């Protein structure tokens, strides 16, 4: 269960990244611009190449998977930030958190031709999905026919497909080689965004670079560890690993409460008793799901 420990640490760093994004996006940054910066920074993965033994291009039938993943990853990011920009975060985030592992579960069954599934794994998956949904929704009712929910379907499906493709890459390539191929592809894809005149103008505007770079540094570590966890996790548990995203929200809750209490100038959020009670119950449910995996 080493993958479980790696995943939990990964979600801690992704929680730090989410916090930075929250502060940075107060400036109403456009989704395309934000995805451009994320993709651009992913190009730094080329620094790993000198440390990879016998690095070279694999045959096309193997290379096609990281290329597809890099494209899907950028599309998933853009669709997510677009949904967050247009609709309520309180609906988009929990809808995505609940739908992604469900999509991964069914996609992995078809893609990897899974025939045997343990009851314990399914139980842990369901419990983690419930916990993730509750902690990110604050108990708010979400209508399945609402625009917010419908617009959450696409990024949830794309991120689910991204997880499947990532696992496929690591089944055919070493961890670092696969990572380099995927992130170079996403770097090349976002370069096409430069054809957008408005985006090119936005590149030179002043913004909170320190917050952004800090968020992306934490996010980079988180994604690296999450990718490593995906390379280690059995195909049967791929959906469960994604459902552990509730751990990220639990970390985010703790960090937000701490900063709001002691550094309110940086971030100030109020939690009423009902919301806080729901979040505490959610954390307990997530802990139960993790316990089932051990």
- Overall number of domains: 1
Round the mean pLDDT to the nearest integer and report it: 84
Overall radius of gyration: 19 Å
Major beta sheet, specifics?
A: none
Strand tally: 0
Gross morphology: globular
List keywords for this structure.
294 residues; mainly alpha; 12 helices; 0% strand
Structure overview:
By secondary structure, the protein is mainly alpha-helical. The chain has one domain. The mean pLDDT is 84.
Summarize the structure.
It contains 12 helices and no strands. By secondary structure, it is mainly alpha-helical.
Secondary structure topology:
Blueprint: H1 2-24, H2 31-42, H3 60-86, H4 89-111, H5 119-137, H6 147-172, H7 175-190, H8 197-202, H9 209-232, H10 238-243, H11 245-262, H12 273-293
């Amino acid at each position: 269960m080493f993958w479980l420990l790696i995943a939990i640490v990964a979600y801690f760093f992704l929680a730090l990244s989410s916090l930075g994004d929250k502060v940075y996006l107060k400036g109403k940054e456009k989704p395309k611009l934000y995805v451009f910066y994320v993709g651009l920074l992913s190009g730094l993965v080329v620094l790993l190449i000198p440390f990879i033994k016998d690095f070279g291009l694999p045959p096309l039938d193997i290379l096609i998977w990281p290329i597809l993943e890099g494209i899907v990853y950028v599309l998933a990011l853009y669709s997510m930030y677009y949904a967050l920009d247009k609709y309520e975060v309180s609906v988009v985030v929990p809808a995505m958190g609940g739908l992604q592992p469900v999509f991964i579960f069914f996609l992995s069954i078809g893609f990897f031709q899974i025939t045997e599934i343990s009851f314990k794994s399914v139980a842990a998956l369901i419990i983690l999905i419930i916990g993730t949904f509750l902690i990110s929704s604050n108990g708010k009712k979400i209508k399945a026919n609402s625009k917010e929910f419908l617009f959450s379907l696409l990024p949830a499906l794309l991120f689910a497909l991204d997880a499947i493709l990532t696992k496929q890459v690591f089944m055919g390539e070493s961890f670092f080689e696969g990572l380099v191929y995927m992130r170079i592809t996403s770097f090349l894809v976002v370069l096409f965004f430069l054809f957008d005149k408005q985006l090119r103008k936005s590149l030179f505007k002043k913004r909170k670079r320190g917050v952004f770079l800090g968020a992306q540094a934490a996010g980079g570590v988180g994604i690296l560890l999450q990718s490593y966890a995906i390379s280690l996790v059995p195909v049967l548990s791929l959906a469960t690993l994604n459902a552990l995203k509730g751990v990220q929200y639990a970390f985010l809750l703790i960090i937000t409460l701490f900063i709001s209490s002691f550094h309110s100038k940086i971030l100030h959020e109020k939690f009423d008793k009902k919301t806080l009670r729901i979040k505490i119950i959610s954390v307990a449910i997530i802990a139960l799901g993790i316990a089932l995996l051990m």
